[in-house]
Amino acid sequence: QVQLVESGGGLVQAGGSLRLSCAASGSIFNINSMGWYRQSPGKQRELVATITRGGITNYADYADSVEGRFTISRDNAKNTVTLQMNSLKPEDTAVYYCNAKGYYLYEYNYWGQGTHVTVSS
Fold first, then answer.
1. Which residues contact 1 (CB under 8 A, 6 or more apart)?
2. Torsion 85-88-91-93 (CA) sign
3. Strands 18-25, 80-85: parallel, antiparallel or unpaired by DSSP?
4. CB 4 within 8 A of CB 98
5. S-S: 29 plus which of 6, 40, 104, 115, CB 3.0-4.6 Å?
6. 58 HSE (CA, 13 A, CB side)
7. What pLDDT digit, counting tens, does each position of 4-62 carry?
8. Residue 96 contacts by C-beta under 8 Å, 6 or more apart in sequence?
């Protein structure tokens, strides 16, 4: 059984920082991409950042709304992904979900349970 366990959410004032972490455990192999998505009340889940495994370097991709403020990183050996969020804005308030995609015998797409981030103005 595969689990993605997130940590690091919370309440922060606008302009502050938070660091989200996610660890994948269980029978999960060949993770191609790991990432973070978020969902606010009444809105669809949206991509925040993803990081794709490369031969030497991992490749990161960001939503325009967080580019320059958020940094995603990954430890391929430990199957962990981290999202450093700086200069937070009230509009960053959402539930943040960790995601892992890959292929091992079949394609898979796993989600974490979500962690709340609240940015007060």
1. 26, 27
2. positive
3. antiparallel
4. yes
5. 104
6. 22
7. 999 999 999 999 999 999 999 988 889 999 999 999 999 999 999 999 998 788 999 99
8. 6, 9, 20, 36, 37, 38, 48, 83, 114, 115, 116, 117
